[in-house]
Amino acid sequence: MRINPDNKKIRYSGRIDWRNPKEPIWVYPCTSAEFKFTGKYLKIFLKNKNEYWQNYLGCILDGVQLCYYLDNKKENEIEIRVPENENGEHHVLFFKRQDSCHEMHILGFEIEDGAKLLELPDAQTRKIEVYGDSVSAGEVTEAVDYTGKTDPEHQGGYSNSWYSYAWMTARMLNAQIHDIAQGGIALMDGQGWFHEPDQIGMESAWNKIRFNKTFGELTEWDFNQYTPQVVVVAIGQNDNHPFDYMSEDYMCEKAILWREHYTEFLKKLRQVYPKASVVCCTTLLEHDSSWDKAIDDVVVSMGDSKISHCIFKRNGAATPGHLRIPETYEMARELADYIENLGIEEWK
């Protein structure tokens, strides 16, 4: 029995392009579809649009995590069959493991004839949103043999948003998440690694669903669709490329300009989320501490009691490579504790 993507018993999470309700588009990591069903088998149908890396679909069926390779050469419908189940009730979560290195167009699902979808329990009322880069997206998290080391050669298969500190933090807090994360992104256009030499910065991406021009027209996000009580801003890691001006001269023109732009970015977030607690941070990935000083100076200068700066125990010093699962857990545990200690009124 074919099930349309817009079936009301399917719960979606993430910034999704719903302009065509029969073909919602997934852009960001941690974007997901969740439902309960009966019967022995399950299929998902989708189209994958690839720009780089190899791409994979994440799936958790009855607590067991699975991973499916998406053939980049196919422009038509991809059919994925999940392994046979026992008869009875089942729970599935399909999710996007990677960032905007690809887009997924969800075409529908299938369960056996006579089976049915079941009601899900109520969604969590706690909501967080994360703005970040590859670490927030969970890039290369599964390369656990390289914990504390530089990255291995890979084609995207080690990347898994489920193990990002962002999604781990949300689970620790029993919160929904929107993960506005993109590998290589910096704050400002023209800096960082994403789409070099014409880099797209978070300033251009933050209010979009599609921000990667490779896949077509850019699409705006409606901020009325999701209102987080906590917003995490984890930007400042890739901004030192192609030149680490903040560490070279903290008072140079480029460094001052970055702090001004970071201030304006926080003001834009405050405009769309007037009541949210905003937590600024970087990550455990190695970087010069001048970037954390810059963030701290901006936070102090703003004088907003609901904008704060979280510094981790091994901030900027834990690893020269991307965070692996043990390191993302370490960061998530500290961040979750930090957020809980904010005493957010709506969470009490």
From TrEMBL:
Residues 12-121 form the Carbohydrate esterase 2 N-terminal domain. It comes from the Bacteria. InterPro entries: CE2_N (IPR040794), PCW_deacetylase/CE (IPR052762), SGNH_hydro_sf (IPR036514). This is Electron transporter RnfD.
